[in-house]
Amino acid sequence: MNIELKKVKWADGNAPSTPQTLRLSFRRQDAPDVSDSYTLVTDSLFVLANGTIINPPLIKGLENAMPYVLRLQNNDIIGGQVDILYTTPSELAFAQVTARFTPNARIDYVNEGINLLSGMMPSFGKAFFTLENDFIDRFATYSISPGAAPAFKKYQGYLGLYVNAASGSLTTSISQPNLIGYNGAAYYSMGVNFYISTADLGTSGVWPLLSCVDASGNGVMVYVDNATKKVVWQQKNPTARETLTSTTLIVPDSWNNVLIGSAPAPIGNNVLYHLILNGSNNNTGSIGTSSNFSTPNANEMLTVGGNPYPSGFSGKGTFRNLYVTAALSSTGDNSGYTTLLPPTGYLQQVSNPANIITIPHENMISVSSTKISFTIPQSVAAGNYNFYVKYNRNTSTTPVVNISVDAVTKQTSPFDFNFALSDDTLNMTDAFQVAHYAINENLDGGPDGGVVPKNVYFRDGMLVLEAHGDLYDGLVQGVDKDRMPKKHTEPGDPLIGEYWKTRVGAAVATRSYCGYGRFIVEAKLPKQFGVSPFFRLYNRATAFLQDPYYDQVIASGLHQRSDGANGYYTIVKNEFSMELPANNSVWVFNSLSEMVSVNYVYPYAGMKVIVNAGDNNDGTWQLNTPAAPNQLSSWTKFSDEKQLVNQPRRDQVKLKNSKGPLGNGAGFNWLPNPVEEEYLEMRASAGKDIWDDAFHEFRMDWYANRVEYYIDGVLIQTNPFVVPDIAGRFSFGLSFPSSQFEDSSWLLDPQLLTAGVAAWHHQTMTVRRVAFTPFTDAVAGGTNRLIGETKPYDGMYKFPFIYG
């Protein structure tokens, strides 16, 4: 443990009349009072007559909860020395919260020794896509493109891509030579799962399911004859066209699967083909080799749900699985393609083993050979469960994992932890620990170490949150985005291979979810910039397209996203926060004309921006008339100053309302795309220096239509935009908003240091009161949504003796 000795309290009658230069050393109290027991800290400690220490040194290597004698020596001191008895704070031991979930939480089964895909995909092939979970070829060779604006439909718990053959198709990277070979005589087979609704059934014409043809129709196509409702396989070259037709019909308003392909060996001059519809060997025919297409075009690709040349085709449907291989097996099923079954998750109630909940297929978010992920259905009741997965066509079962599912409930009673007024400090701190977690996380993964539980402790009966700056040289390690000990790993980093120890903060969060209400924290901020104190309520989740929660998220106004590998999803970042320090402006414009030409989505009175045009207009401008932000008369020049993001002020605060992470947070967007604005970051002035080594009250009142922000009882801003509505955990602490410099992840970008430079060893924020008063629905003006987070307990650590 490291401590700073900041002030000496002289005994009555012993205070010197002038500043002193002292020798400081220490020993454990139980060590003998001899010179060999003392460790020298400094022989040049400069102390003012009132006891204030100038540039206090760091006393390193002290043990936890241990009494020490600190000795100050100087001939000018009466008696020659002063001994100070000091007991170090009790560091807290933490236990990670594991195997706890809530409805809507993500639960993973990971096992490197089990192939969870064994029943979900054929044993061999060229390409296999499960379009409901992602757009990845399970054989890792080909790709598929859903188009610029894919449409999705969900039927009977299965999700697929919806295609209108008259306007487009899904396109794969499987070319004609890939499919049928360069001589046009290779064996091939193709299979697809598709859903056709009665409303989309045509009465005439052709609906292509799979097409690999040129503009003249030469190649291979599998289609539905809309008049007969039968599936037809067609092989065509410039001189011949041959077909094979199913003997049964497709089933409307249901999922169908079709497999068409060649047998592994020719029969005389012909090739034997199978057409399998819905698991039945529907037709076997002998096709003449005269229709083989011998001049395949590498530019013509296999398409799904339509034809690359859509003229004359009609039909609409939804597609889920796509399979391509070289030849059809002699059984006509190609290693079980038509009997594919995805893994199935189960929750068996421990108290009632007969109660086994099958996790619906639509809650299966992702699957690979070693990992499968589900979201716990929102209908699952709280309790203890055995979680397991059946795979390999549901004939094999994974080992059981015991988990706890907690209900998502709101804090309905107020709490007020006032450490300063407590007559029983021990019981007060114990009660706080029962109601809170310490946090271990690094959300942005930048050149910092996130927040860790070791930097949370109690001292003199109050809660202390410690932050380690750029000069820290102690033992506490930071964490990475996976919450593992972070290391310097980038080539070129002079500390490569060492653990990350600088720019590491601390934070705590409520165990319960809090809804609309009043949140108060009384705290003494650090004295120096370089770290960001924050007070925040949050609820975070990721909803993938097939998840039932996805539709709720889209309906709330958030937007679809995709990273190309994990399919389509939305991110819920439902929060509001007060963060310090901040500059006073939200954006830098290059000219006045640019300032008044953007699309203002959330304009508000008092919004400040910078104009940096290189002329007399340069400075900070303020919006006075938010109803007309694109008129120059609505703005006035506030100041000639241009306070950039790396020039924070001691009186400025950043106030954030958020439902999601998309947008720039500044309240405007660039035309012509004005829609993706899911959060807003306001700036406000506290009207005074709040980094003054004094306690201040930070308060947020959350209503259904606004969040009101107060400092020391004074309303500094009301934010009525992007107001969150999901109950969440309330957290506060010290963090480092660190952006990396160019391509060097270990370096800070000095232009983006919103909290300033952390040119110090460590600082603390001392908290003397934490309080919450819930509002009734009538007072709040609405009712919170209660929805679980994707990973509600990740990074949560229990305080000592808390086992719930």
Automatic annotation (TrEMBL):
Residue stretches making up the GH16 domain: 391-778
Source species, domain of life: Bacteria
GO terms assigned for molecular function: hydrolase activity, hydrolyzing O-glycosyl compounds
Gene3D superfamilies: 2.60.120.200
A biological process term (GO) from this entry: carbohydrate metabolic process
Family of the protein in this entry: Belongs to the glycosyl hydrolase 16 family.
Name of the protein this chain belongs to: GH16 domain-containing protein
